Amino acid sequence: MSYHWRDGNRLQLLENGEEFFPRVFEVIAQAKKEVLLETFILFQDKVGIELQKALIAAAENGASVDVTVDGYGSADLHGEFVAEMTRVGVRIHMFDPGKRLLGRRLNVFRRMHRKIVVVDGETAFIGGINFSADHLGDFGPAAKQDYALQVEGPVVRDIHHFALSQIAPDKTPRRWWRRRLRQQTPGYGGVSRGEARALFVLRDNDQHRNDIEEHYLQAIRDARSRLLIANAYFFPGYRVLREIRNAARRGVRVRLILQGEPDMPIAKFGARMLYNYLMRDGVEIHEYCRRPLHGKVALADYEWSTVGSSNLDPLSLSLNLEANLIIRDHVFNRHLHERLDHLLQTDCRRIPLERIIRGFWWRAPLAFLIFHFLRHFPGLVNLFPEHKPRLELLDADTPELDAVPAPLQREQQ
């Protein structure tokens, strides 16, 4: 399942939950035909409750509503929370549910990490924002900085086709034909709405293992003027690191925005192992220090951009199920650059090379060992027997749902 570049799209960058949640809840609640939603995390906090209300409103309007959550990221949903939606016809699927051992989930790897919403086949949302209150500023110092897109136009047809295929694989010719009709009908994302060219790209553990990474690599190789990457969990493989350094060597201004106040301290520790390697050739590294960075966005030169769910680390690039939108549009590129440059100027500190060089002699062996362990980590995981992930339809009687009281909040990626 591969998709193609689509012209004629309208894109709007949504920054943090303050911009994302009101928009997506409004569009969902007004759905007339269909809502397809995938998310890594759904919590039973104030954001989860508002999403629940919007999904119930859509179902009561007569829309077909399917919600898919990850069995690790959304493991603590409570039975009554689910029942309030299933009673009105909302179907809730859990990707790769698993049993607990000593109270903890074991299905840590190969997670469904995508964040996608498609409403009536006409409007889509894609990015890195989960449905949890820690994406709102009033959550406090641990509130996350993140980005998503609202998308209208022909590329929605591809996002819609993909999201539908995940919950309704071909079982009969009749279902297949109905999906084909939806793909080909202009009302399902086929109408030109803007000027942006866009490509829907996914990463899975089958035929698209390296697609997102390959698009990053090509953009970095092609960059001639500027490269700006904001990524929460930055520990890419050697190919990406080499191309970033090569870009700086040939005169591209390369800036990385990484975590300065991480929600997971190991993310900051791992990224800092790479600083010396990159900064020696002129890569600028800035740490975002206002609150945890959760974004996964990048731009190259004056046209190429990407927004999505994929981090640049071994989990996202080699194990998790991810989805990004690749964009070629001068207007969007300029707007994303303005927002990221504002972040750089107001809430980031630039890391000086002198600070990294100081004491590097004793950190170098440790950095070498950690880098090569993490670089080979996906291969080590693949040595273990690989189970086939399953999708389970939930109801209020699903045993796991009553194992943990609600509401709950957890650390996330």
TrEMBL record:
Catalytic reaction annotation: 2 a 1,2-diacyl-sn-glycero-3-phospho-(1'-sn-glycerol) = a cardiolipin + glycerol
InterPro entries registered for this protein in UniProt: Cardiolipin_synth_ClsB, PLD-like_dom, PLipase_D/transphosphatidylase
Positions annotated as active site in the UniProt record: 113, 115, 120, 294, 296, 301
Topology term for the membrane: Peripheral membrane protein
One GO cellular component, as annotated: plasma membrane
Parts of the chain that traverse the membrane: none
Gene3D superfamilies reported for this sequence: Endonuclease Chain A
Principal EC category: transferase
Cross-referenced PROSITE patterns: PLD (PS50035)
GO-annotated molecular function: cardiolipin synthase activity
Enzyme Commission (EC) number: 2.7.8.-
BP GO annotations: cardiolipin biosynthetic process
Domain PLD phosphodiesterase residues, every copy: 108-135, 289-316
Keywords: Cell membrane, Lipid biosynthesis, Lipid metabolism, Membrane, Phospholipid biosynthesis, Phospholipid metabolism, Repeat, Transferase
Domain of life: Bacteria
Entry's localization field: Cell membrane
Purpose: Catalyzes the phosphatidyl group transfer from one phosphatidylglycerol molecule to another to form cardiolipin (CL) (diphosphatidylglycerol) and glycerol.
Protein family according to the UniProt entry: Belongs to the phospholipase D family. Cardiolipin synthase subfamily. ClsB sub-subfamily.
Protein name (record): Cardiolipin synthase B
Encoding gene per record: clsB
